[in-house]
Amino acid sequence: MLYELVGIARVSTMQEVRDIMRTMGEIIIKTGGVVRRVDWLGRQFLPNVVGKHQQLHFAGHHFTMLFDSSIKTQRDIYELLRVDARMVRVTRINCAKNLKELAKFKQKPGMV
């Protein structure tokens, strides 16, 4: 199944953001999944102040990851990121539920 994970990491060093994305990628690959695309959207201000892990956040590093994996793997990644103190927000989107929908999925030019 094809999923897109959208996350906002707290404002800190870029090394922490890379570590988060690398860990997610390693989990997906080790469980037989495929990472299709990883995009870092930059450091942006949040539309509202977000309270998470007993801190207030005004900005964050936004990123997305498009990947194929089993349902169990994407649930494990989501649960891992929900409790990670470096993450402000995380959500997942199911892009294709079956092979017919997956065949209709087309990548935009310039995407790897």
From TrEMBL:
This is Ribosomal protein S6. Gene3D superfamilies: 3.30.70.60. It comes from the Eukaryota. It holds the Pfam family Ribosomal_S6. InterPro entries: Ribosomal_bS6 (IPR000529), Ribosomal_bS6_sf (IPR035980), Transl_elong_EF1B/ribsomal_bS6 (IPR014717). Belongs to the bacterial ribosomal protein bS6 family. PANTHER family: MITOCHONDRIAL 28S RIBOSOMAL PROTEIN S6, SMALL RIBOSOMAL SUBUNIT PROTEIN BS6M. One of its GO terms (cellular component) is mitochondrial small ribosomal subunit. CDD domains: bS6_mito.
